[in-house]
Each structure stands twice: as structure tokens, then as C-alpha cells.
Amino acid sequence: MTVTLPRRGTMVRESWLVVVARNSVAIAAAAIFVAPFLFVVLMSFMTSDQALTSNLWPTTWHPGNFVDIFTKMPMFDYLVNTMTYALLATGFMLLSSIPAAYALAKLKWRGSTAVFVVVICMMMLPPQVVTVPLYLMWSNAGLTGTLWPLILPMLVGDAFSIFLLRQFLMTIPGTVLDAARIDGCSEWQVLLRVVVPMAKPGIAATAIFQFFYAWNDYYGPLLYTSEDQANWTLSIALSQFKTLHHVEWNLVMAATLLVMAPVVIVFFFAQKAFVQGVTLTGVKG
Amino acid sequence: MTALLERPASVADKPPRRRPARRWRHRLTVLSFMAPALLGIGVFFLYPLLAAVYFSFTRFDLLTVPRWVGLRNYTYLFTQDSVAGQAALNTVWFVLILVPARMLAALLTSMLLVSLKRGGGFFRTIFYLPALAPPVAATIAFVFLFNPATGPVNEVLSWFGVDGPLWFDSPDWSKPSLVLLGTWAVGDLMVIFLAALLDVPKPLYEAAAIDGANAWQRFWHVTFPSLSPVLVFAAVTGVIQTLQYFTQAAVAASVASGTATTGGGISSTFGYPENSTLTYPLHLYVSGFRYYDMGYANALAVVLFVVAFGVTVVLLRRFRAFTGGAR
Predict the structure, then answer these.
(1) Residues A44, A105 within the same domain
(2) Structural domain for A58, as ranges
(3) Is the CB of residue A141 less than 8 Å away from at least one CB of chain B?
(4) Residues A237 and A156 grouped into a single domain
(5) Closest in A8, A188, A238 to B206, CB measured
(6) Bond preceding residue A133 cis, omega within 30 of 0
(7) Which member of B29, B117, B254 has the closest CB to residue A7?
(8) Contact A153, B319 (CB under 8 A)
(9) Partners of B67 in the beta sheet?
(10) How many domains, chain A?
(11) Contact B4, A178 (CB under 8 A)
(12) Domains in chain B and their CATH numbers?
């Protein structure tokens, strides 16, 4: 679809008053959605003295906060921990979940629907239900206190990613795959040479979701690393920032911005894949 | 259509007529794709579920072996643990308030976007942005914004002569504050609603307009019916998500409670103020990992599972399209 589709206003001409009112509402709503970000940015540039007042605008701009968060707290180590978790989890997830999603979307076998229903149940299961047995398992393996209990399971598939990839792969026409099969491709060759190149946007969206999931994850790192500060992620560090440094809102807000920034930057570069992915988690398809 | 590749007579659904060697090769192929995921389902889903049921009948503190106590954990849960009752009520409160609030916000913003003549893309990005903010970061930002002493919200309210409440520090206002946070980050739901709204056939609106339907009638008789599957889907998945509501409540409590957490670890502040933000999953976490009452934590887990599973079944029954139609 290209640009000039007749919008539905073409039939009923709206008075300019309605148009103005509607745009005013949009602008007011946008202001409300943006305001929290604005106040966070302003606070992150205040000096520690000013942060104790209720002034909204920095009297002197103090970018030093962004340096202080790295010197007053091992933020860089937390960043490395978080990146390790997010990158390994994403890589492992792709290795294990793409083949499974392909088998569920494009191969005919007895029990495939049943397995897919189990995958959905697994995706819907509140993580707290299975927390204690899994914690005991990792404790016996001597891996509690590290991030491995969050990374290693990705080697054997992630329910949400399998679900999302499967929904993407369903949209690839079967005739394309049959053509490849007639040319003598094995199923693995079909997957690697035909399906993966065609499904790149879907795979990208799934990878971005997995990366953000790990980046944002609070429950997992809290469960496994809260006792061992050396393995904290940014999420845990951020939530504990205040307790270590009293009420230094300017530093906390600088750290908060640091955690938000990568997500927002990735979003602007991959907006299309992202929105498509969010929509596919909905009822469509 | 793999049928294309097979010999005509014996096609499709009658496996016995297929040559056994070929059948086995097909099964092995499928297995080679599915093996890791099947292992994952077994080790990280089925096993811990069964283990949780077993542990829920025991007394277990990690140090000694589990001791069978029958239904004692469950009788304690349902008859004696008043905190569990409070936590369950908190979670029900969120299900009843947070889910509809988010749906309403998503509906209003998405309909506003559809009605805009220009700038739709710009406003869509603006409205979506908060949903991107990592939950921990967003929660901390809100605790700062709403902090009673120096926070911008109460400062702005004071310009209008309004004496703002204590927000995250008040047992009465802590949950509404979290609802505001959840409603701010409504973008993911909004994008889903927006896609559904754009799918409503345009001629329907035009026909309704010709028949003299006003804006409200067009919404009620055209938009709403077309949207209802998505609304039901959003409600059901919203309930499932809210049953596991943990991060925002935990972080809000631990940041708002301030500096007094010298001992007892991170979880010692959960529920602040006065257990008003202690959701059911938080109570489960505290029972297991603060008090090391693993048997009891698993009893809480089994009850949570039964409820969540019931809701999931509703979802699966309502949305056959979700699972059906392979190929």
C-alpha cells in the first residue's frame, strides 16, 4: 500500500473545530507521555545539592553525574554482566528455537499440535511457579550466584521465542519450501537456505525481544545473583542504587537513563521489525 | 504440502501405507529439529511442575531432607496465613484495576491515532516509547517523580493548590501509583489495538455514516464488534501477566522504602508500605528465599499454577486460531 488512500474523513467533512480539538488532545497526551522522561533527564543533570530541592530545572548543568555513576559504583562491571547475559541468551535462543519453530510451523508430524499447546502453556506459566525446584536444581549443580542458570536454559529453547518464530514462519508460503524439496534439499537445507533468509525480519524481531528481555530481566538475576554482588546485572544494581547511596536522585536518574538508552536506540534503528513483532504476539495470524 | 512429493494412492493421513523406512526417516528428521526444545520442556517445565507438587506436601528448608507433612502447608495457607490472604487480595486488586485501566488507555490512544489526519507516525512513537523503558528503570523514575518530598508531580500539583498524597509511601496510594506506571507504559497493547483498528474495513464506516450514525454509534456498532476478539485476547493475557506481577511492585517497594535496608537482603523491603504492594508472587518469593520455607512456597506455587492454568485454558479454547492451521 502506498500513500494516498482516501481516509474515512473524505465522506463526512469534519469541521475544523473537531480537527483542532483532536490535535490538541493528541498534543496534550503526548506531553503526558513524554513528561516523565523529561523530568528524569533534568534531574540527571542536577548537582547533588540541587537534587535535594524541589526545583524542576537545573540551575547549573552538571554532566559529571554520568561519570560519577561509574566511579561510585562498579557500573561498568554490571554492564559487562548484563551484556554477557543478554548476548549469550539471545545467541543460544536462536540456535535452539529456530529449528523447533520450523518443525512446529512447517513439518507434518503426529503430536505437533499437542507440543505447540505445551509450548503455549510454558509461555503462559508464571515463572514463580517453577522457581523453587529450578533453584534447587541449579544449587545442586553449584551454579547459583552466577548468571548461568539464566543463560544455559536458552540452549534448549525458549517458549516465547518458539511461539513468536512459529507465527512468523507460518506466513511463509509452503510452495516455496516444496520447490526447494523437489530440488533435492533436505529439511535442514530447506531451513538454512530458504526459510532463514526469508524469515530474517521475524528472526531479527525475536532476537531483539530476547535481548531486551534479558536486559530488562529483574526476577532472574534477583533470584540467582542477589547474594553475589559481583554478578549483579544493571537491573539489580539500579534497584539497589538508592540503598547504597541514600537519596542521590541525580545519580540514580543518570543511571536510569544509562539503562534506558540502549533500548531506545535499538528501537529507533529497528522500529519496523519491532512493531511487527509486537503485533504478531496479538491475536492475528 | 508434502503430499506433493508422495505417491498418489497412499498419500496423507494413513501412515501404515507409507514405507516404514521412510516413516522412520521422517520421524528422525522431526526429532533432529525438536530434540533441544523437547528436552527443555521436560527439564524446565514438566519436571519442576511435578517437583513443585511433591515439595508442596513437605517441610523443607534446604538444609535437611524434605519431610512429608501431608496437607499441612495447604491448611496453613488457607486458614492461618493472613499475609497470603492479603497478598492474594493485592493481586486480585491489580487484576481488577490494572488490566481494565491499561485496556482503556490502549483503546483511547489507538483510536486517537487512527483519527489523526497527519502526524500519526510521530504520535505513535511518542505513545509507544514508555513501553520500551526497562521496567526497573521506569519504576525507579516513577518513584522519583512521585516522591512526596521533592518530586515533580507533587511540586506541579502544589502550583494549583493541591496537596499531593504520599504516593508510593502511602498504603492507600501505592497500588494506584503502580497503576499509573502500568498505564503510562501501555504502548505494547496500543500497537496491537492499532493493528486491529486498521483492519476494520473502511466501507463499514462509510456505510454507517451514510445511514446517519453518529460517532458514538459508529464506535459501538462498527469499531467495537470488530475489535472484540482483540479485546478478549488482551483481557485474558493481561490477567495472566498480572498474576505474575512482580518486578514493578518489588522495585517500587525497595526504592521507596529508602535507606533502611541494611540487613535481610533485597527481599526484606518487599511489600512496603505495610504489605500494600506485596503481590502473591512476591509473597511466594519471600516465603521461599527469605524464610527458606520451600515446602510452603511450593504450596503457594501450586495454587498459583492452578489459577494461571485455568486462565490459559480459557485463552486456548477461545482462540483456536492461535494453535490451529499448520502450514
Answers:
(1) no
(2) 12-67
(3) no
(4) yes
(5) A8
(6) no
(7) B117
(8) no
(9) B59
(10) 2
(11) yes
(12) 82-292 (1.10.3720.10)
